[in-house]
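#lab-general

N.A. 3:47 PM
ok so I finally got the sequence cleaned up, no stray characters, all 235 residues accounted for. can someone with queue access submit it? mine expired

B.Y. 3:52 PM
send it over

N.A. 3:53 PM
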Amino acid sequence: MNKNILYLFFLQITICWSQSTEIEKSLFVVGEDTIPNSSINLKEVIVYQPLTFNSYDSAKKYAILRNRTYKVYPYAKLASDRLEILNNRIKDIDSKRRRKKYLKRLEKFIYGEFEQDLKKLSRSQGKILIKLVHRQTGETTHKLIKELRNGWKATIYQTTASFFKLSLKETYNPKDNYQDYLIEDILLRAFSSGRLVEQPTALEYDLDELYYIWKSKLDFNKKKIPGQQRYKLIN
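B.Y. 4:20 PM
back already:
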């Protein structure tokens, strides 16, 4: 056999073996998956920019809003969970009388379970909770009471809330309300870090759009002072 042909033959085998070895080294079997993959699929991780503020006062206000949001979000999430269970159960109750009796019993149970905790909420925390109930259920607290109980009950609760300068008709609107946008920012950061358990919002809005809307508004209104001190909030 010609030496040149023999050399090319062994060279081809060496190249093929080398390529095969490289492929084997780059393949992964994930979990019980028997299909080799050339890469490992990782969960998407969102990295947020550090929180910086132009003044100590604005940083402090954000920190206070964050603590209030952390405290009341679990109640809003629980309200959404209970509402879903309630709606599923009510479908199986044909009798109007039995349905009314069931709702009354449920209301008594909820009061007994959460009355003391909710009484401890400040007015500011209560306002955030009302907004977050709308975020999680897609309905205002006033409308939920009206649909589940009756219009008279909704009016009584609304009147009582007004004594504390609250409205059960309050909505969550991060597109037009800056504080709501900050609450949304707080929630998303908390979900990403595992500080709060995420529950999808019942409302529809584009998060990227929200970011650019408020960035544009804030940049337009912001007074740029050379050498101005910046304050960073530590999580």
